[in-house]
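Page 42, continued from yesterday. The earlier attempt failed because a stray header line got pasted into the input along with the sequence. Redoing it now with the clean sequence only.
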Amino acid sequence: MSAKIEDLARRRAERERRAQQEAPPTREAGTVPAKGGRCPICGRPRDPVHRPFCSKRCAEIDLGRWLKESYRVQTDESPEDEVPSRDRDAE
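This time it went through. C-alpha cells are written below.
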C-alpha cells in the first residue's frame, strides 16, 4: 500500500511541476502586456473578438478598473493644478 501512496505522491508532484511550467506569468494590474498575444488581465491567449483580452469578462474587469480609477496616467501635475469645473447652473 505504501508503494501506491508513493506513486500517487510522485504523480502529483510531477503534475504540479508541469502546471507551473505551463502557467502564464502573473502580472500586476496596469502593466503593459508582453508580446505573444496574452490577455493583460489573466494571461490566457487573446481572442480576436475581445482583443486585447481573452473574453468579455476580462474586458469588463479592465473597464471596471478604469472606472474605479485603479489605473492612473502619471503626470508631473499636482492635484492643485487642476482647473475646477464650473457650475453650469450658476451662469
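Notes: The CA atoms of residues 11 and 17 lie 10 Å apart.
Reminder to self: strip header lines before submitting.
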